[in-house]
Design a protein that fits this description.
The complex is a heterodimer of chains A (about 110) and B (about 110). Chain A has about 110 residues and is mainly β. Helix content of chain A is about 0%, strand content about 50%. In chain A, the strands form 2 sheets. In chain A, strands 2, 4, 5, 6, 9, 10 and 11 form a 7-stranded mixed sheet that branches. A 4-stranded antiparallel sheet of chain A has the order 1-3-8-7, with no helix packed on it. Helices cover about 0% and strands about 50% of the residues of chain B. The chains are: A mainly beta (about 110), B mainly beta (about 110). The interface of A and B includes residues 4, 44, 97 and 103 of A.
Chain lengths: ~110, ~110
Amino acid sequence: ETGVTQSPTHLIKTRGQQVTLRCSSQSGHNTVSWYQQALGQGPQFIFQYYREEENGRGNFPPRFSGLQFPNYSSELNVNALELDDSALYLCASNKGGETNEKLFFGSGTQLSVL
Amino acid sequence: GNSVTQMEGPVTLSEEAFLTINCTYTATGYPSLFWYVQYPGEGLQLLLKATKADDKGSNKGFEATYRKETTSFHLEKGSVQVSDSAVYFCALKLRGATNKLIFGTGTLLAVQP
């Protein structure tokens, strides 16, 4: 059974550009969540996808968007990058539903915006 | 609002010392509480959890008890090892269908041989 995998591991962009981060959920998992972890901070919830629909969102602007595909993999898209978007972006998956609360996290994508 | 406050690090201990990392929370309703650990270069891993008051979560020698009266979930271990060196995050999850975890800022633990 493979775990949660994210790509790329590192990325450098310039302000104003757009970026796409990718996540393959763990086998059997249908729910994917994305988190932003700034340096020295705890992760902050961006949004969650369940069965290809966004069904929960944190306090992030609309330029943060996502997709989930039929195989439950997911993308995080960020438009009009700002310097403050520099962070580690974590993807997490599980089978969904309140009774299964354990999240499995990937190792993250380190995004640097110059 | 809902939030988690945990003690600032770094916490530096000698091997076999006793560990306590304090965590308090503010939340509406009755959240589930978690401790996650992040080893260098890796993603977060669930260490332990508790879903209701007075529950004790435990794993790998770590323990934490859900204290509703003091809104706390302090992490303890009786004898730390060098391999326990990592960043520890306390987190809460409100009742509901999403996987929105609210994390504290993390506490770096460094265990010296």
